[in-house]
Amino acid sequence: MLHTFVAHVSDKPGVLTRVASLFRRLNINIVSLTVGESERPEVSRMTIVCEAPDHAAHRIRASLYKLEITVDVDEVGRSEAVIRELCLIKVAAGPKTRSQIFELATVFKARVVDLAPESVMLEMTGAASKIEGLIQVLTESGYTILEVSRTGRMAMRRGHHTSRVLKALGTPHSDHSDETSFPEKPDADEILPNEFTGVHEDEA
Amino acid sequence: MNSQHPQLTGAEIIWATLVGEGVDEVFGYPGGAILPAYDALRKFPIHHILVRHEQGAAHMADGYARASGKVGVCIATSGPGATNLVTGIATAMLDSVPIICITGQVGSKVLGSDAFQEVDITGITLPITKHNYLVTRAEDIAPALREAFQIAMSGRPGPVLIDITKDAQQNTATFSFEAAAPAHYRPHPMLQAESSSIQQAIELIQQAKRPIILAGHGIIHSGAEAQVLAFAERQQIPVASTLLGLGAFPTYHALSLGMMGMHGESWVNNAIQQADLLLAFGMRFDDRVTGNLAHYAPNAKKIHIEIDPSEINKNVRADVALIGDLRETLDLLLPLMPKKTDTSWIGEVNAMKGDAAVRDIINLPDNGHLYAAHVINDIWREAHAAGRADQTVIVTDVGQHQMWEAQYYKHDVPRSLITSGGLGTMGFALPAAIGAKVACPEKDVWVIAGDGGFQMTAAELSTIVQEGLAINIAVINNGFLGMVRQWQEAFYEKNYAASPILSPDFVKLAGAHGIDGAHVSERKNVIPTVTKARTSGKPFLINFQVEKEDGVYPMIAPGAALHEMVRRPAADPLLETAEDE
């Protein structure tokens, strides 16, 4: 099954190698990995999606904690988190075929970000399944996809969730007085309604 | 900038930080990229032990750490100096031993250019260190070193390597030991036994009729020997040990079962297979301990007390996992446990011994042959008779003699056995014993090594002499790589490919270094020679010429279940006299 981990790690040289090496050693393939800045200085945020047996999640999480550069690790499932991916797709299209692609883009809430005599570039944000849907429709409609660049998944828990570790470290701008009142996992009815309801990933 | 704190070179900062961390001795070997550090060495109250090979330096730091419970420190130059440390670092990693390795590195401006003696040692050691650092600025040395000490000792201990470029050693920076203190240790959300789990554990223990404690290295790391003893006595639970757990629980105790696993006694393994509850204390269910996992302790619930969350459910599924420091966890548990008086299970376990003890090689009558088991048992008996058993540290190499040591030497106190368990590093004994002797000069330190492993690091004999260390060396010489030969006998139809080994005259070799020695090939000479070595006050080497094709029994074939022990063959031609009894 697919597991999605969110790791906060120190922003230092070699950190990516340490994380990647851990998966290599466990002989687990990383499906996608995104790294970027987080809300706190000197801490990067990684979203790691990997294909691993059901029971491997604990071990991966515990092994990630074992790395000295790791500040915090969270495993997020599809129900508890918003998981998104950004994708750029360049499709071969001349003046005659463009408009049909524009229509498809509108249906999939993709944006046209570049227009060239021979091609169109689309930008799309969403769940991986939606992106795959657009690619599939484009291919099945007979268009030639020239390039695809996907960021890989990014994940964030719904609700006002902060891990115990990050709380202990003190969140920037956090109100310390009511810190402890946040439940570990928000109740179902506390989860904010989401405009993308129905497009969450279906990861079997 | 800050007039209170001195400006020091990076080289001076290295030593000043080590002094601040309480380091008295380091093991090392100089070379180009670490020369600035060596240039500053003699300004500081640190004794440097010059090794003969950097692998030895890492093993010495390891032996020092295991014998003392403190961090061992080794130092080497870049390139080959650093790569020679690798086996020693991996050895420490697999056995969770806190050591600090400092390596020189080429100047930061030429990093990555394949400069002379440049090697990416932080890359190489990434999977075999708990953490490592590449330091390129003088001002970063003290914070990195201090953090390294904290990391090496905290949680599950382990080796940390700090690679310091030559220019970082040569440049100056303001030094303040206090200001370099690491930030508070990152909190670990998994690292505390939860009260609900404690409650579950208590229920399991109370329900258990046939519980066994599996005593691991973690007891010694945590300093939980007294808690384990109290726990076992209060609950009347027998205690089986892993190889690295030997010494954590006194062997003379009625509840002590001895070593479990591949070469454990058959009744110990049978007891584990029949148990209804296993209490794993600071051990990791290594494959040498469990045998075939599919058939391991099938009827037992498992309570796993362990500081490293990644060990939980790794090999054996735990019914209750208590994650945290063992001593703290047992301190929590102990007052909540009502006393038990039922000793019927212990009686059952003792009954399982059956004729195993009679067939034990140590109980066979003298048939004129010298067996390694006799030698090792006699070394213990000699120390015991002299009242020095608690003040003796045995450092073994890897192979048959190591298993015989575990079987026939009685370890009653922690840190009295130093051995490479996880990695199984041949050549470990001699250098590790040097580290142990440096850490504990008042103790008797014995090297027990085979003729194969001893030759891997025999160059360190010179180090012993240069340092004037009174280390006793017992070479168990059978002319074979014994464990390899035993496996070839058992699983490869006696195809002894490359297992017979020629050795020099070890006594003459010792003599060439100025070390006294003796040959022993008869049982009656064992104890007198051991006494002579122990009381000589100088290093002493004994070459024990033992039975060539002896085997370690009982044993579990790889892939077999824990109860499928292979017993000592009754018709062993070497043991004909055994039939006479």
UniProtKB/TrEMBL annotation, chain A:
Q: What is its EC number?
A: 2.2.1.6
CDD domains to which the protein is assigned, alphabetical: ACT_AHAS
**Catalyses which reaction?**
2 pyruvate + H(+) = (2S)-2-acetolactate + CO2
User: Can you supply one Gene Ontology CC term for this chain's record?
Assistant: cytosol
Q: What is this protein called?
A: acetolactate synthase
Which family, according to UniProt? Answer: Belongs to the acetolactate synthase small subunit family.
ACT domain residues are 4-78
Q: Which InterPro entries does this UniProt record tie to the protein?
A: Acetalactate_synth_ssu (IPR004789), Acetolactate_synth/TF_NikR_C (IPR027271), Acetolactate_synth_ssu_C (IPR019455), ACT-like_dom_sf (IPR045865), ACT_dom (IPR002912), AHAS_ACT (IPR039557), AHAS_small-like_ACT (IPR054480)
Q: Which residues, if any, are the signal sequence?
A: none
Q: Which GO terms describe its biological process?
A: isoleucine biosynthetic process; L-valine biosynthetic process
Chain intervals for the UniProt region annotation (Disordered)? 168-204
Start-end of Basic and acidic residues biased regions: 173-188
Q: How is this protein organized at the quaternary level?
A: Dimer of large and small chains.
Q: What GO molecular functions are on record for this protein? A: acetolactate synthase activity; acetolactate synthase regulator activity
PROSITE patterns from the UniProt entry: ACT (PS51671)
The enzyme class is transferase
Pathway info: Amino-acid biosynthesis; L-valine biosynthesis; L-valine from pyruvate: step 1/4; Amino-acid biosynthesis; L-isoleucine biosynthesis; L-isoleucine from 2-oxobutanoate: step 1/4
What keywords is this UniProt entry annotated with?
Amino-acid biosynthesis, Branched-chain amino acid biosynthesis, Transferase
TrEMBL record, chain B:
Name any one GO molecular function.
thiamine pyrophosphate binding
Give the enzyme class: transferase
Q: Give the family per the record.
A: Belongs to the TPP enzyme family.
What keywords are annotated for this sequence in UniProt?
Answer: Amino-acid biosynthesis, Branched-chain amino acid biosynthesis, Magnesium, Metal-binding, Thiamine pyrophosphate, Transferase
Listed under catalytic activity are:
2 pyruvate + H(+) = (2S)-2-acetolactate + CO2
Query: Its GO CC terms?
Result: acetolactate synthase complex
Domain (Thiamine pyrophosphate enzyme TPP-binding) spans: 397-543
Cofactor requirement: Mg(2+); thiamine diphosphate
The protein here is known as: Acetolactate synthase
Domain Thiamine pyrophosphate enzyme central, first and last residues per copy? 198-332
Keyword Amino-acid biosynthesis in the entry? The reply is yes
Pathway(s) served: Amino-acid biosynthesis; L-valine biosynthesis; L-valine from pyruvate: step 1/4; Amino-acid biosynthesis; L-isoleucine biosynthesis; L-isoleucine from 2-oxobutanoate: step 1/4
Write down how the cofactor binds this protein. Binds 1 Mg(2+) ion per subunit. Binds 1 thiamine pyrophosphate per subunit.
Q: Which NCBIfam families match?
A: acolac_lg (TIGR00118)
The Thiamine pyrophosphate enzyme N-terminal TPP-binding domain extends over: 9-122
State the InterPro entries in the record: Acetolactate_synth_lsu, AHAS_TPP, DHS-like_NAD/FAD-binding_dom, THDP-binding, Thiamin_PyroP_enz_cen_dom, Thiamin_PyroP_enz_TPP-bd_dom, TPP-bd_CS, TPP_enz
What does the record list as GO biological process?
isoleucine biosynthetic process; L-valine biosynthetic process
The residue ranges crossing the membrane are: none
> Which EC number(s) are documented for this chain?
2.2.1.6
The organism named in the record is Tunturiibacter gelidiferens
